[in-house]
Every structure is written in structure tokens, then in C-alpha cells.
Amino acid sequence: MTHAVAASSAAVPRTSRWTVFGWFALVFLISSQAIAIAISPPDRDMGDLQKIMYVHVPAAWMTMLAPLAVLIFALKYLLKHREEDDLLAASAAEVAVMFAGLTLALGMIWGRPTWGVWWTWDPRLTSTLVLFLILAGYLSVRALIDDREQRAQWSAAVGVLGAINVPIVYMSVRWWRTIHQIQSSPSTVDPAYVIGLRLNAFAFLFVMIWFIHRRYEAALLERAAEHAAENAALGGYSRE
After folding, report:
1. H or E segment at 210?
2. Do residues 57 and 102 make contact, with C-beta atoms less than 8 angstroms apart?
3. Which among 99, 104, 24 has a CA at the least distance from the CA of 68?
4. What is the band of 21 on the pLDDT scale with cuts at 50, 70, 90?
């Protein structure tokens, strides 16, 4: 497994295609935001405050999508014990924490003028906060456990728990009484807002993929450096 990671770190794609993809994701995001803001009229009740939807809603979608990536790679690690899968799960978890935090922060900013409070223990908000805490716990487990195999196994279990919470977050607005609106669809959203939402959904997806890739690339290099330091230490000990 050590040699596999070292080999993988040497084979990390550093070609221009990922640089191009990163710039494409950034330009697509900026363009999608600009188009959505430009073509959507002010909401009847919220006015221009409605335009925060083009950031909050896609961020919320990525908050539910990224933990599923954690689940996939965590299960792959438990089945195959490939360290690369563990690093991919960890990379996805870091990105998931970022999007979950962004979702909560934007929700509070949106909720203050519409609901009159920064925070309320609404089922959707509470379940999203629980997901955020589980993901933060995932990262804490990785920071606290030194043994690589034990860290990967324990964090994989936490990652599975986080993914289990995703359908709870999604269905919370239907299972319990809530002031948060139910899931929107093209048939329930004004056509003036659909294009902007769809564009930004793809924009956030591209950004999420690029973030995960970049974090995975960095993790491979970090792990290769750790292995090199360990090998050097063992080599120095053997010469003594």
C-alpha cells in the first residue's frame, strides 16, 4: 500500500487539462451568477434578496452530493484497503464540510430578513447542522488518530454515518413540520429562475470536482513526503 501511494503521488496529473478545468469552473461560475442575476426579475415578496438562491441552493445540493462521494470512496477503502480511496474520501469530506458551512451561513443570511431570526431549530436547518458536525467529526477523527489503517477505518465509519444523514436532510421538509420550503423542481419554480438555478448547479458541481481533485492531489504529495521521511528515518536507524 505504501508503494502504491508513492507511485500514485508520482503519477498525479499535473497536466494542463486540470488547470484548464479549474479556470473553466471559475469562469463558468462567474458567468452563471452574472446570467442568473441579470435575467431574473426581483421576487414579489423578497425582492432582490431572492438572488441569494443562486448561491445557497447549489451549495445545499453540493452539501448532499459531496458526502455521497465520501461514502463511495469509504466503502471502496473498506473493501479493497487502497490508501488512495481513503485519501479521496478525506478530500471529499473536506470539501463537503466547506459546502455545508457555506449552506448554513447563507441560510442564516437569507433567514434573517425572511423569517425574522438568524437561526431556528427547524428540521431542515437542524439536520443540515448535524450533517456538518458529522463531517467535522470525520476530520477530527483523522486528526486525532496516528495509525493510518485505524484512522482510515474509523473515519470511513463516520463517513458512512454522514451519508446516512443525507436523505434525512433531503426529506426533513416532508417528514416534519417546517418553515423551510419543500424541495423545488422546474415545475414549481418560476421559469425566470430555472435557467439560473440549473447553470449554477453545474457551476458548483464543477467547482466541487476541482476542489476534490486538488485536495486529493495535495494529499498524495503529503503522504508521499511522509513515506519518504519514514523511509529515511528507518534507513538512518539501520545504518546505526
Report:
1. helix 191-239
2. no
3. 99
4. very high
Bridge partners for 47 per DSSP: 43
The CA-atom distances, in angstroms, between 5 and each of 85, 138, 152, 177, 233 are 10, 21, 14, 48, 18
Burial 165-185 (b: 16+ CB within 10 A, else e): bbeebbebbeeeebebeeeee
Using CA atoms, how far apart are residues 1 and 227, in angstroms rounded to an integer? 11
Residue 8 confidence (pLDDT) above 60 = no
3 state DSSP class of 177 = coil
Closest CA to 33 of 169, 177, 203: 203
Bridge partners of 43, per DSSP, are 47
CA atoms within 13 A on the CB side of 82: 14
| Residue 79 neighbours by CB distance under 10 Å | 9
Of 108, 111, 107, 81, nearest to 5 by C-alpha is 81
- Nearest-5° angle of CA 68, CA 158, CA 171? 50
Does residue 67 contact residue 163 with C-beta atoms inside 8 Å? yes
Quote the pLDDT of residue 234: 74
Closest CA to 131 of 93, 91, 157: 93
pLDDT, mean of residues 117-130: 93
What φ, ψ does residue 43 adopt, rounded to 5°?
-65, 150
Every domain of the chain and the residues it spans? 51-222
Phi and psi torsions of 47, nearest 5°: 65, -140
